[in-house]
Amino acid sequence: RTVSKGIQMTGYGVAGWSLEKVLDELREAYASLPEPSPRVLLAMEIFAGAQLDAGDRSRFISLVSAFEPLADARPLGDEVNSFVDEVVVMLESRAAIPAAVRQSLKGRMLQLRTESIRQSILRVVREALPNMPTASAIADEAYAVRSQMAHSGRPADFDLDLPVLTRAAEGVLRALFSSLVSRPLLVPIAPG
Predict the structure, then answer these.
(1) Does residue 142 sit in helix, strand or coil?
(2) What's this model's pTM, rounded to 2 decimal places?
(3) CA dihedral angle for residue 39, residue 44, residue 49, residue 55, rounded to 10 degrees
(4) 114 SS3 class
(5) Residue 75 contacts by C-beta under 8 Å, 6 or more apart in sequence?
(6) Less Cβ around it within 10 Å: N or C end of the chain?
């Protein structure tokens, strides 16, 4: 969407399975799988909703947003906590900084005790997909581009092939869902 490659045409097609195959999958999944976590269910709902979006940019932003509910930020440890506590004490002693600003800064500083959402997403991807070495790099790039687009309206790289990155992020999310619910994919991840 952000780089011109000349005239292009896209199409839409659906390849389906027989009703029996679909119902067998549903029966087996409901009978054998434990209830997924609310985080996984929300991520899957966001993923499914993104598939219905007609615009490349909004579809990409929605799709990549499906990573966020899966992020479960972990504490960074006692050393980090100690450092943050010291900085907060320093901040609180600065009377020249307005109280409302100090409170805002304090809240943001206390968040430094845990992983960022991006760090957490990358850890979850690495842990869930150890046999997919490019998965965390794809998730990282997609999350960075999503942030650029959400905050400035466009990616920093005007030559970015957004549909290619969208398909790659979609593949990582599908593999991630498959791993998190311990269910194999019926359709393999598209290369590329």
Answers:
(1) helix
(2) 0.77
(3) 100
(4) strand
(5) 81, 113, 114
(6) C
